[in-house]
Design goal:
The structure is a single chain. By secondary structure, the protein is mainly alpha-helical. It is built from six helices and five strands, in the order H-H-H-H-H-E-H-E-E-E-E. The strands form two sheets. It has a three-stranded antiparallel β-sheet. A hairpin with a 2-residue loop joins strand 3 and strand 4. It starts with a helix and ends in an 8-residue tail after the last strand.
């Protein structure tokens, strides 16, 4: 039996919170280690570009993201089956889905790990320059930079965790929907609270009334995408987005 909207909201929230919290903790640990490495490089007069320590840290972040994506894809697929009232996919089905998306996981984890690492270096440089301009010297510079980096990283990991986990979750959900029936429709479901962007409120209302085929594009704000957090959408529509796909099963359509 398919879940109601309220039941689906609660299920999605519980899954996403677990995924984003786990990923956030792992990313924060990576950022802390990277900050220490960058500081050591600065103190020794080294260069960031091509530095082996930074590249190794970036590789570790890539593996963290890769594992998190696979987990979120699995959860997204199981969510889609459960919300539509279908039997949960078995391990063979999930393995086939992960194999289908392995290219996406690999490329995306590499790209996002590099972007996040570069951003951490940029933040460090800004913090370091602020310390110099404040007249700090020696160990005081290191202390000020460390405090500033810790504060900034804690603030950004929540957004990163939500965005990265939900992006992979929606990818798995969409692919799972394709396995149900070629006549399944989808709609854009927002959290319907004060944090939801006006453009996402509009999408929720529009596609609740008129669901669209799985291969069709949602129009959200000034962009279009196949799902929430689709990279085709502009960044203002994807960062920290908590929206999700809701599958609409046509009546009297046998599920294959």
């Amino acid at each position: 039996m398919a879940l109601s909207d309220a039941q689906t909201d609660r299920l999605f929230d519980s899954i996403l919170i677990k995924l984003e919290n786990k990923l956030g903790r792992q990313i924060l640990g990576n950022f802390r280690q990277l900050t220490k490495s960058i500081r050591a490089i600065v103190e020794s007069g080294g260069e960031f570009a091509g530095n082996t320590v930074i590249l190794e840290n970036q590789r570790e972040l890539q593996l963290i993201l890769q594992d998190a994506y696979f987990e979120a894809i699995r959860e997204g697929a199981k969510f889609t089956y459960k919300e539509t009232g279908q039997e949960e996919p078995d391990e063979d089905d999930l393995s086939a889905l992960l194999l289908l998306l392995i290219g996406w996981v690999t490329v995306t984890s590499i790209q996002h790990a590099q972007f996040l690492t570069d951003t951490t270096i940029d933040i460090f440089n800004t913090s370091y320059q602020n310390a110099l301009e404040a007249g700090e010297m020696g160990l005081d510079i290191a202390k000020m930079v460390s405090r500033d980096m810790q504060k900034r990283n804690k603030a950004r990991v929540k957004v990163i965790g939500t965005s990265e986990a939900n992006m992979a979750f929606q990818t798995g959900s969409l692919e799972a929907g394709k396995t149900l029936s070629d006549q399944v429709l989808k709609r854009w479901n927002s959290q319907q609270d004060r944090r939801v962007r006006p453009t996402h409120v509009s999408a929720n209302s529009r596609y609740r009334k008129k669901p669209i085929p799985l291969g069709a594009l949602f129009s959200v704000g000034a962009g279009q995408g196949l799902r929430p957090l689709d990279p085709m959408l502009p960044s203002e529509e994807t960062v920290a987005c908590r929206c999700y796909l809701r599958m609409v099963m046509p009546k009297n359509i046998p599920i294959t």
